[in-house]
Structure prediction request, 272 residues.
Amino acid sequence: MTKEKTKEIYNKILKFIYVFCGLFGFVAYVSYLIKLIFWPSNKLELIAAFLGIAVAGIPVFFRRFFEKKLPKKLFKVLESIFAYGMLFYFITFLCLSSFILGAGALQSDADELSEDCVFIVYGAGLKGDQPGVTLRKRLDKTVEYMEELPDSVCIVSGGQGPDEVLPEAEVMKNYLVEKGIAKERIFLEDKSRNTIQNIKNSYKIIEDEGLNGDCIVSISNAFHIPRIELIFSRLGIESEFVLAPDPNPYSMFSVLVREYMSYAKLLIFGTE
Prediction:
């Protein structure tokens, strides 16, 4: 095979990677933006969605414009950087998604837990003064386990978002009480704004209240649990895990996009 032929094949492969992976990134962040429209979150996540769309979409949809306007050598360098950058995103996204979707192996059954274990229930979006679908699934699973372990207690953890009428923890406690869980078994942690704070603030309550720190059990959706496990590991704290059902499967792709950003943030900034 001649040098020119090899170069031609390489350029075709590079162009395919450029377009395919770029479009994948564009679709990923458009789906995330759509999720934010229906389930609003903070402004940083909205900015992240727009940036993702711009970074992935502009080079793909305006590729010909850049090719004509930029010097040939510079365009080739930038084309390669974008193509391999988006390929890295695509591959790592698939690997992380496989890791997250395999979270079922982390599940602990009630008969494997201590009678006086401490459940940490992680906050999620509200619908007015009621739990949203995702949060309700976590709370229903908490009720199920606490009924099986009558000496257990739980910490409901979640602060008040900018678009929420009450702290998530307060709504969570009200829901559990309505479901028959005694108030005395529920501890409130209503200052947290993210998962790392959920864990740190809840662990402080465990220490301050003299609760059983040898049996801490996190309850959240399956997509969230692997990240919780990673944070606990980074903090050097032992924890068991209980998986609540995931939300609507149609929103799972956008959930994985958000989780990818959360893992990247954890990798860069750690647990501080």
In short: Residues 127 and 155 are 21 Å apart (CA to CA). The longest strand covers residues 216-221.
